[in-house]
Structure formats: C-alpha cells, structure tokens
C-alpha cells in the first residue's frame, strides 16, 4: 500500500479535503478564538439556562485565577470528577489555561477505583461534584490532594427551576437529591465551594501559556493489560482530533450548530465531541448530567439538536420515545455512533425518523479518540467503521510480528499513525514501548479487515476488554472483585454479545467446597468495589476453568463455551 497516497481519501464524502494540516495553538487558544468570533452566541445550555461564549470566556479566566490561588501551576494535575454541566467545561479550560493537566474521572467510581487513579496521577487539587466530595475526603492521607473544590449542579440551573427544587414535594426532593447534597464533606482536606473560584479577578493575559506539545489531559483507559493507566494526550493531539472531526462533516455550519452532550465528558468520546469539537465550531452545547429520554426530548422541543454523538442504545431509545410523544427529530442532520457495534437496523430506523445521516466511527482513548469514520454521505457503508480520518495512516499487520504487513484483504492487527495518536502512558515506560512502535505507529490490539475501497471492519479484539454501554470493563478487575468474596476460589469474566450491539459482563465462578451459589450476594459484594456497569449480569458456577499449560485462565475458551452452550452450567443469575 502506498501510504503517502492515502488511497482511502477517494471514499471521502464530497467536500471533505484529502489533505489535512493540524491547526496551530492550544486548546485555550481554540476557546478564545470562539469567544472572539461567536461572543454573544449561546455556548452552553443547561436545563434552559444559557451561557454565551463571552460569559464562558470570562468564567474560565476567573476560575483559572482561582485555581492559581490554590497553588495550581504548569504541569500540575487537577482531578475533575464531574458529570456534564457548565462547571465541567469551565473547569476543564481553566486548568488548561494555567498549563496544568486535566485528569477526567467517572463520578460513579467507587472509593477503590478513585483511589487507584489518584495514587497514580498525584493531583493536589480536585474539582468534584459535591455528591462525590465525601469520597475524595475518604482517600488515604498519603494521597496528596490538599484542596477539594465542590460543585453544586443546581447553581447552574435557571432561577425558577432552582426555586422549584425547594418545594416540600417528594418529586422535587428526589430531583434535588439527584443533583446535589446537603451533606458537608468532612476530612483533612480544604473544601472550597466552586462559586469562590469565580469571585477572583480575571487571570492576567500575560500569565504563561501552555505549548502545543504540552500534556493537556490524562485520560484513563484499561488498555490491553486490564490495569487502568493514564493515556497522555497533548494539546496538539486533542486540537488535531477536533479539527479532523470538523473536517469530516460536509455542510457543517460554524456558529449555527446545536450539539447535544448526552455522552459523558469524562469519557474520551464525549470529551472530544463536546468539550473540544463543539467549542471549536461555535456550537450551542446542550448539556445533560445523565442520559434521560424525557429530558432530551423536552430539550429538543425548545432547542432542536442538529448534531448528536451517541451510542446505539441511545439512538434506539430516542426514536421510540419521539414516536410515542410526537417529537420531531428531523432537525438532526448529523449523528455519529461509536464505542460499540452499530446495528444496521438502528441506522435504518434512525435515518427514516430524522432524514439525516447516522454513521459509525472508530477510535480509542489513545487516538484522542477518533481514528476512522464512515463518510457522511452516500458512500458510507453500514457494518464497517469507515475509512481513516484526514491526516491518519493505517497498517494491517501480523499480530505476532507487527513488522510484517498482511496481504491486501487479509485480516490482521490495526496500527494507526497520525497527529491524534497519544504520547504514551503516564509513568509507564514499558507499556508505552509496547504500544508505540518505531515511526509513531500505535498498536490498537484490534483485528480488522480492509476491503478493496479501504473500508475497515472490526473482526475481533486481541485485548479482552468488555465494552458495555460504551464503557470499557477490564475482566481482571471484575475477577479480582469476585475472588475477594470468601466463597469464591476462582473466576473468569468475559463479554457476551447483547442484542442491539455492545456486550454484557458475564462471570464464571469456581466456588469453595460446600459453598452454594448466591448470585445476589456476589453482586452485592461487587457493588462495594465496582461501578454498577462493571457488575456481571450473568453469573454461572463451574467446577473448573479452562487453563493454559502454565495455568493461565483461557478467557477465549470460556467465552466460546458460553456462546456454544448457553448459560446452562451449574447456575445462572438473573439480570440486575
């Protein structure tokens, strides 16, 4: 294959340029350009409350000054543990303006999951949802967090809605408790309400700025080993991927699009499509702290979306809900699906309901995350993940010897090279060396095939991560949780395909003698150490597990047996 020619550009949609130059500058520059260009336009909408680009830029400058007063300097890590909300976007860009590094976390993580990541990145300041603050305060004293900035989501609501939440009615009380807490975090760390950061004067324009090659974000991924590690993403990586996304969409109208943030922005997919791409094109970003069909459809009546990045189950639920409630979705011209397989039936139903395109893309945290996508036009091929993005090169190689390219049409491991490819894993040189080959090629661990027009199809995964609901689940982590139960001697965890795309977490356990399988007790035990989406939906008992000659559990055989025989072993747990 002539890499210099990038032959796949012939399959790009009309209007998508074959060449691509990475924009100069940094992510703060990206936002400041949009503030200058789209100043009085709405940047953010949250339950009807709006923020203009000028107001957003002002809040970022004040928050940056507030973080500086807490001792944040260039190169420091700042932990963000927030759902989608205006404060999340302000905090993200304020951290970056100081030259510090934003570290995104899932606010649903358990104490143990948070502890591992905080031990790894060593942040001294954490900006957290107030409901999460007690968990951060419980982190061991040797973790160097000194200040916890607490965010009350209700303060970003319209005044009328905020007042309504005070009514002594059960429904409003439940709504208030879902957004905030009255619990005061107690512990050794200084607590600073978010509003205090915004009381500072603007950060002086002459304050030192980051460079394009500086690290902007640590995004944790389970990678190929099952051990969470931080992917190092620079300003250039993220700026490039936002620009690649904008270049990919013909007919995109800068300053006039409305993007719905139903994907969590602590996930690489949501981070790029919402935190960077949407801001780069001067879009109105409508924020949802969690996906709820009713909330999204209510918003669609008032601020019709034009661009919706999501995962297949969201598209399916929105089409069904819109039909039931009589909500028109035809404003949505562009929809991009990722993180799991997109069924062709979902494409057909969605495009019939909206008249727009629904295309599938492919990426990984390590590629910021998007590396390939289906053209947004008639040349798309449902069932594939499309062709490499502008400025991106790919190779398909022998997984056992990545120096050997596969013959055309032959499946192999996908290698990616491009401006969006990460710099390595945070403080993990061995894993970095294994993932990044000479010449800047990243080993994805995915087995793919490429047809004669260069469309990629995912065949299998070398790595054994389970993708459920768009999130990665490391089998090792779930197995460790199961083995820590006093009645479990061993466990194997795999992903089983789910109708409509994605996978369910399934576990096969070997119990101690005289122990009776209690599925509910095992799930309850797991809830103490794992986020809810990691808890096995199916738990089966077996007398033993298939192993290699050195005793390693063969997860592939476990998965094959489950698929071949069905859940008919010694017992099956009901879905939670």
Automatic annotation (TrEMBL):
* Classification via PROSITE patterns: AMP_BINDING (PS00455)
The cross-references to InterPro entries, in alphabetical order and at most eight, read: AMP-bd_C, AMP-bd_C_sf, AMP-binding_CS, AMP-dep_synth/lig_dom, ANL_N_sf, ATP-dep_AMP-bd_enzyme
User: Please, which domain of life does this record's source organism belong to?
Assistant: Bacteria
Question: By its UniProt entry, which CDD domains does this protein fall under?
Answer: FC-FACS_FadD_like
Q: Where is the AMP-dependent synthetase/ligase domain?
A: 31-426
Q: What residue stretches are annotated with the AMP-binding enzyme C-terminal domain?
A: 477-552
Keyword line: Ligase
Its EC number is: 6.2.1.3
**Leading EC class:** ligase
Q: Which Pfam families match?
A: AMP-binding, AMP-binding_C
Any GO molecular function: long-chain fatty acid-CoA ligase activity
Name the UniProt record assigns to this protein:
Long-chain fatty acid--CoA ligase
Q: Which organism is it from?
A: Arthrobacter cheniae
């Amino acid at each position: 294959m002539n890499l210099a020619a990038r032959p796949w550009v012939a399959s790009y949609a009309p209007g998508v340029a074959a060449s691509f130059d990475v924009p100069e500058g940094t992510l703060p520059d990206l936002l400041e350009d949009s503030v200058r260009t789209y100043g009085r336009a709405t940047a953010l909408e949250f339950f009807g409350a709006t923020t203009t680009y000028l107001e957003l830029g002002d809040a970022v400058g004040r928050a940056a000054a507030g973080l500086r007063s807490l001792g944040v300097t260039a190169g420091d890590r700042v932990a963000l543990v927030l759902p989608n909300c205006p404060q999340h976007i302000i905090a993200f860009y304020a951290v970056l303006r100081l030259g510090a590094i934003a570290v995104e976390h899932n606010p649903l993580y358990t104490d143990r999951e948070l502890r591992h990541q905080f031990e790894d990145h060593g942040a001294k300041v954490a900006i957290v949802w107030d409901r999460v603050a007690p968990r951060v305060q419980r982190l061991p004293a040797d973790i160097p967090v000194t200040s916890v900035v607490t965010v009350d989501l209700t303060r970003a609501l319209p005044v009328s809605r905020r007042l309504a939440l005070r009514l002594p009615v059960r429904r409003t009380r439940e709504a208030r408790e879902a957004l905030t807490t009255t619990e005061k975090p107690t512990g050794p760390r200084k607590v600073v309400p978010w509003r205090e950061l915004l009381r500072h004067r603007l950060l002086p324009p002459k304050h030192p700025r980051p460079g394009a090659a500086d690290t902007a974000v640590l995004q944790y991924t389970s990678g190929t080993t099952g051990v969470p590690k931080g992917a190092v993403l620079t300003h250039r990586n993220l700026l490039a991927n936002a620009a690649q996304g904008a270049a990919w969409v013909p007919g995109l109208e800068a300053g006039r699009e409305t993007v719905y943030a139903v994907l969590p922005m602590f996930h690489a997919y949501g981070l790029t499509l919402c935190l960077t791409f949407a801001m780069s094109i001067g879009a109105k970003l409508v924020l949802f702290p969690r996906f709820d069909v009713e909330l999204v459809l209510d918003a669609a009546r008032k601020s019709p979306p034009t661009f919706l990045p999501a995962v297949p189950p969201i598209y399916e639920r929105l089409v069904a809900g819109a039909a039931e409630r009589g909500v028109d979705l035809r404003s949505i011209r562009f929809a991009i699906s990722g993180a799991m397989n997109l069924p062709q039936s979902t494409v057909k139903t969605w495009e019939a309901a909206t008249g727009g395109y629904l295309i599938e893309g492919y990426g990984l945290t390590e590629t910021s995350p998007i590396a390939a996508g289906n053209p947004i036009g008639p040349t798309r091929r449902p069932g594939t993940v499309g062709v490499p993005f502008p400025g991106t090169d790919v190779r398909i190689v022998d997984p056992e010897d990545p120096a050997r390219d596969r013959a055309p049409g032959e499946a192999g491991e996908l290698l990616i090279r491009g401006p969006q490819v990460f710099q390595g894993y945070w403080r993990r040189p061995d894993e970095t060396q294994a993932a990044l080959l000479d010449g800047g090629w990243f080993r994805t661990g995915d087995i793919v095939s490429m047809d004669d027009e260069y469309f990629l199809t995912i065949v299998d995964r070398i790595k054994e991560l389970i993708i459920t609901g768009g999130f990665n689940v490391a089998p090792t982590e779930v197995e460790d949780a199961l083995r820590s139960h006093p009645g479990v001697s061993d466990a194997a965890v795999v992903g089983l395909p789910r109708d409509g795309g994605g996978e369910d977490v399934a576990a096969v356990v070997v119990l101690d003698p005289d122990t009776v399988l209690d599925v509910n007790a095992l799930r309850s035990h797991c809830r103490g150490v794992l986020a809810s989406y990691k808890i096995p939906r199916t738990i089966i008992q077996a007398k033993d597990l298939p192993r290699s000659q050195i005793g390693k559990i063969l997860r592939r055989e476990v998965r094959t047996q489950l698929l071949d025989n069905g859940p008919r072993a010694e017992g099956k747990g009901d879905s939670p």
